[in-house]
# Entry
Amino acid sequence: MNKIIAFSTVALGIGLAWPDPAIAQTAKDLVGTWTNVANVNIRQDGTRVNVFGPNGKGLAIFDSNGRFAIVNVNPDTPKFAANNRAQGTPTENKAAMEGGIALFGTYTVGPDKGITMKVEGSTYPNWTGTEQKRTVVSFTGDELKWTLPASIGGTAEVTWKRIK
Amino acid sequence: MNRRSVLTKSVPIVLAAALLPSSVVAQQKSIKDQLVGTWIFVSAQDVKPDGSKVDPWGPNPKGAAMYDANGRFTFMIMRSDLPKFASNNRGQATGEEGKAVAQGMIAFYGTYTVNESDKTVTTRIEGSSYPNLIGAEQKRVITSLTADELRYTNPTTSTGTKAEAVWRRAK
# Structure
């Protein structure tokens, strides 16, 4: 009986002390470099679209001092015919805007395990200076999935894999 | 006997002397080690063929570059006066909004390597807000690197000029 009680106490102790591995506990869990696995836009009617096309890709870096940067792109965006970034046609400029987003700033992880990003600068001007909340849907240490209100309306569901 | 004790005593000294140079070297960090971290954009000027300089990024530009220890990086610069999209939707820029933003920002990421002897950083761009840079390889020549400041020249920018850039380390 004593043994059973002792065992249960130990088990309970471990249970209490062991963090839920499925959810990011602290900002420390995010530190590192992540490659984009998926960037899905969930429209209001529930349909799912790859925001940056079938080959969308990106990189996110979270440093240990609370700074982050994210770049996501559609690699199939047409190149500018003039081969000069300042000489895009209206169609090329629009496609480039639709075909990528980048942002940087500072981040914190709150008690609710959500990630708050203070966006200091973004290639999408409406995001510059905003504070954004990303809800962590799943976290396994090496894979991270969050959702946020998308920059094109609807909900964005973004999946990252840690680069080792 | 005396000789043996001298020998015995001298072994640690020789060992210490052998170890000394590496500890001195360790204190002189490589360019790569100094580059790793987060840098905040200060300024970049285009240098025209005639030597005149133009600031394409306007007052108080924004930007960050992050170099990780494993050779990956992100890089972005943007003007601070870019117009917000009236539609509040990234996919619905007007012609003027799209033009201003496409001309007023750049972002890319990929892998980088440092050549310690000629003080250059080569970036291999995997993704970029400017599609022509995807798959490109760029070289930057470091002209000054301290604990807090990084200066380099970019011999070929995405607008076809040479540029001189200044960054400060994020605190």
